[in-house]
């Protein structure tokens, strides 16, 4: 009732401390940017949306995500197979083997980067959103409910004093 009356402009609202309001605004800003950065980093590390959904499901089911071959490693595999087809002794075959090996190293580095970024960068962001932010939200709701209770009590007290003053005036 208090909340509705405040929204309709029929009841007074106790304002929170300006510093506290600033902290709440900063917390909201931090949460919003953390969500955006987390989502975009996931897109950068895994551009394929269906693969991201699959990884998300594995994560929620507490199962190990199957190791996926990177595009660089796949290209290296094709180059090595082509080199073997053309003959490893031919100039084209030798070149394909060299480039394929380099591509394999790049693919392995990419896989290591994705793994490292997931553990060292994405995990702390998720921990903030799933842990700290939930606590902040819960405490914020509790504070809001207590403020509404306080304002409702103030309104009842004001009405009681007004009724008492009216009763004192009328004989």
TrEMBL record:
It is found in: Cytoplasm. Residues 5-171 form the BAR domain. Keywords: Coiled coil, Cytoplasm. GO terms for biological process: membrane organization. It comes from the Eukaryota. InterPro entries: AH/BAR_dom_sf, BAR_dom, Endophilin_SH3RF. One of its GO terms (cellular component) is cytoplasm. Belongs to the endophilin family. PANTHER family: DREBRIN-LIKE PROTEIN-RELATED (PTHR14167:SF68), SH3 DOMAIN-CONTAINING (PTHR14167). This is SHLB2 protein. It comes from Donacobius atricapilla. The gene is Sh3glb2_1.
